[in-house]
Amino acid sequence: MNKLSLPIPSTCPEPFAKLMEDCWSAEPHCRPSFSNILDQLTAIEESGFYEMPQDSFHSLQKGWKLEIEEMFDQLRAKEKELRSWEEELTRAAVQQKNHEELLRRREQELAEREIDILERELNIIIHQLCQEKPQVKK
């Protein structure tokens, strides 16, 4: 199944990472309700996470941003590689189609030639039969 969601940075605190994963679940019925989300955010707040010095949190955010940018760069590189493979496969399919058409025409030419040869042979046989007159013994 295709999963289209943002990457979660490796240094993201576990409670936030779990909450994001739950909210991004592919199965809508598995996603938390708004009241559940609020409860989880309240629990995170009460856990003392926000007691982290602001500078430390900002440095974490910068790290997250760099990590996400790096992931997107890798995805772009993979996308470019896939596009290249797709173009290569498209060219190969066109070549194969052209080759099949060439073989089909060649087969048709050979069939026409075979019919032409058979027609000539039949004409020769008919001509020989018409020239040979039976000799009647008297």
Any idea what the radius of gyration is? 39 Å
- Class per helix and strand makeup: mainly alpha
The helix count comes to: 3
- As an assembly, this protein is single chain
Question: What is the helical fraction, as a range of percent?
Answer: over 70%
- For the secondary structure, the number of strands is 0
Q: Which stretches are low in confidence, meaning pLDDT under 50 for 5 or more residues running?
A: none
Tell me the overall shape: rod-shaped
The chain-level mean pLDDT equals 87
Q: How much of the sequence is in beta strands?
A: under 5%
What order do the helices and strands follow? Answer: HHH
Tell me the major beta sheet. Answer: none
Distance between the termini: 96 Å
Short synopsis of the structure:
With 138 residues, the protein is mainly α. The protein contains three helices and no strands.
Structure description:
The chain has helices at 14-23, 34-46, 54-131. By secondary structure, it is mainly alpha-helical. The chain has three helices and no strands. Helix content is 73%, strand content 0%. The model has no long low-confidence stretch (mean pLDDT 87).
Keywords:
138 residues, mainly alpha
Topology:
Layout: H1 14-23, H2 34-46, H3 54-131
